[in-house]
Write a structure and sequence with these properties.
The complex is a heterodimer of chains A (97) and B (477).
Chain A (H helix, E strand, L loop, with lengths): L6 H10 L6 H19 L22 E2 L9 H5 L5 E2 L2 E5 L4
Antiparallel strand pairs in A: 2-3
Chain B lengths: L4 E12 L36 E2 H13 L3 E2 L2 E2 L2 E4 L9 E4 L6 E10 L2 E14 L3 E5 L4 E5 L6 E7 L6 H18 L11 E11 L9 E6 L2 H20 L8 E5 L4 E4 L12 E2 L6 E2 L2 H9 L5 H11 L4 H8 L2 H14 L2 H19 L10 H12 L5 H14 L3 H8 L7 H14 L1 H8 L4 H13 L6 H12 L1
Parallel strand pairs in B: 13-14
Antiparallel strand pairs in B: 1-11, 1-12, 3-7, 4-17, 5-6, 5-16, 7-8, 8-11, 9-10, 12-13, 14-15
Classes of the chains: A alpha+beta (97), B alpha+beta (477).
Chain lengths: 97, 477
């Protein structure tokens, strides 16, 4: 494998993803990610000089909605997804501010 | 000699757009609904749901871009900004990083006599997050997703401001442009306009910028001014003590008038942006731009010039009135009906502003009909009601939009034109107040005022104080 991922990078990606990984999982994740990067490297073999970056896979643009209210009170369905709730709100561990 | 420091400030201003629905779904954006009633699978990030862009968001954003002299990005698209926080149900915010809708603009501000251009780096469209409320009882946080998916534009300035005054002038300028466009009501208190302040200090004459910090949670003009002064001093103190300013996000606490660092290193600002795959690119044609341009309203600067030409009112009045689009609209509509610009201006500048202040409202909250103010002015001019009754009626118009003609009729507030009735009352007042009468006859002019007051009271305000005064003098002569 050409790409090497450091311990710090694995640690950092774990923090960003809010994942707590065991040593074993870290090893597995590292080898997965190294293989992914190697795979992506294949693309570098192509000459993309002068080719505009693709912004979307479909050749479609300007798909819009008109500004008209179509949804009613969705609180009942939405709150079905709340493990804890209070006063019609999702109750979560205390956040700063 | 002590070192001289210069403050360098750039602003990120978030503005909630005045659309009826959210940016990517048909949920209402109305403020103040019961928690989570304006939600659906799209704005709560349910797997499999698909966003569809609200066309009006593009129209408003492009209109703001054009009004702030920006170049419109004619092929623009959305990106995902990834972060985890309970107010963000998708775990990413749909925003624009690579191709924002507008770039390279400026607005001109005036501070004192000094004119200055503040450059706009870029402006992008994005969705708002939900609202977190701290629950003291449980020591938990409660999340309401009604605001999740409300459309925002974020306007990022260049670091062109050097003082709190310039920042205020810039914010006022943006507020006026956006309110005139009808693109947002720009209320800082309700959070429909929010500003983050990027600030650094450097020694006067230095060419390099110092390390900047970003301050959040500034929800009034006063808080912004205080936070700027506080942060400037904090950074100068650090530098003078030989310590470094750390690049960080700080949260301003307006009650404590101090800030604290918000994000630690653990929460690195690494948003791992990537193109949003669920939304297709937006192509804004020359024709579309021309259409939006054609719809641009008369802005404040032009309005001030026109008022100067068309209406016989002082410049000061025109400035106050045009400081709010709503106020200017009411002024023009009322003047068109009654043809008395100065009278209309007076009602707006004195009584309207007083009542707004008393009610804790802003000019954009005014809800009375121009027809009613015009009628009130006509009633006063015709001498049908006196000025103190007019004020009372105006309060009713202001609060309940009552028809003044009907109201005056129903409440019997018309000035009593019957001279006989007035004479009867006067006779009684004179008889009841021998001391005041004697004082007046003895040369005390002030005593007459007391008698006029007694008469007005007896007439329940429905007399013309001038006429009462005149009649009294005649009777006591």
């Amino acid at each position: 494998m050409a790409n090497k991922i450091s311990d710090e990078t694995i640690e950092y990606v774990g923090i960003l993803a809010k994942l707590e990984l065991s040593e074993e999982e870290k090893l597995a994740a590292r080898s997965d990610m190294e293989r992914m990067l190697d795979y992506i490297d294949t693309l570098n073999e192509l000459d993309t000089e002068g080719i505009e970056p693709m912004s979307h896979v479909f050749p479609v643009n300007n798909v819009f909605r008109e500004d008209v209210v179509t949804n009613g009170d969705g609180s009942k369905d939405t709150l079905k997804n709340a493990p804890l709730q209070k006063e019609q709100c999702f109750k979560v561990p205390k956040t700063i501010g | 000699m002590a070192k001289q420091y210069e403050t360098v400030i750039g602003l990120e201003v978030h503005v909630e757009l005045a659309t009826k629905t959210k940016i990517f779904c048909g949920c209402s954006t109305a403020f103040g609904g019961a928690p989570n009633t304006h939600t659906c699978p799209v704005c709560t990030g349910m797997p499999g749901s698909l966003p569809v862009l609200n066309k009006q968001v593009v129209e408003y954003a492009a209109a703001i871009g054009l009004a702030t002299n920006c170049e419109i990005t004619q092929v623009c698209k959305f990106d995902r900004k990834n972060y985890f926080y309970p107010d963000n149900p998708q775990n990413y915010q749909i925003s624009q990083l690579y191709l924002p809708i507008a770039r390279n603009g400026y607005v001109e501000i005036e501070v004192g006599e000094q004119k200055k251009k503040i450059r706009i780096h870029e402006m992008h469209m994005e969705e708002d997050a939900g609202k977190l409320v701290h629950d003291e009882w449980d020591d938990t946080s409660l999340v309401d997703y009604n605001r999740s998916g409300v459309p925002l534009v974020e306007i990022v300035s260049e670091p062109d401001m050097r003082s709190a005054d310039e920042v205020m002038a810039y914010l006022e300028k943006l507020r006026l442009i956006i309110q005139y466009l009808g693109a947002s009501d720009c209320k800082l208190q309700e959070g429909s306009m929010r500003a983050d302040v990027n600030l650094s200090v450097r020694e006067v004459g230095a060419s390099e910028f110092g390390t900047r910090t970003e301050m959040k949670n500034l929800n009034s003009f006063k808080a912004i001014a205080r936070a700027i002064d506080g942060e400037r001093q904090r950074q100068i103190d650090l530098i003078e003590a030989g310590r470094a300013v750390v690049q960080e996000t700080r949260r301003w606490d307006d009650n404590k008038e101090s800030s604290h660092a918000m994000r630690s290193k653990e929460d690195a600002q690494d948003y791992r942006y990537f193109p949003e795959p669920d939304l297709v690119p937006i192509v804004i044609s020359d024709e579309w731009i021309a259409e939006i341009k054609a719809r641009q309203p008369e802005f404040r600067t032009e309005k001030l010039e026109r008022y100067n030409r068309a209406f016989d009112i002082p410049r000061y009045d025109a400035e106050i009135i045009t400081n709010s689009k709503k106020m200017a609209d009411i002024f023009e509509a009322t003047t068109a009906i009654c043809g008395k610009p100065k009278k209309v201006a007076n009602w707006l500048m004195v009584e309207t502003l007083r009542l707004l202040k008393e009610r804790g409202q802003e000019p954009e909250d005014i809800c009375f009909a121009p027809e009613h103010l015009a009628k009130l002015i006509e009633l006063t001019e015709a001498g049908t009601i006196n000025s103190s009754v007019a004020k009372e009626v105006f309060e009713k118009i202001f609060d309940e939009n009552v028809d003044p003609e009907k109201y005056v009729e129903e409440k019997g507030l018309k000035i009593v034109q019957d001279d006989g009735a007035l004479e009867e009352v006067l006779k009684k007042v004179i008889a009841d107040n021998p001391q005041a009468v004697a004082d007046y006859k003895g040369g005390k002019e002030k005593a007459l005022g007391a008698l006029v007051g007694q008469t007005m009271k007896a007439m329940k305000g429905k007399a013309n104080p001038g006429a009462v005064n005149k009649k009294l003098r005649e009777m006591l002569a």
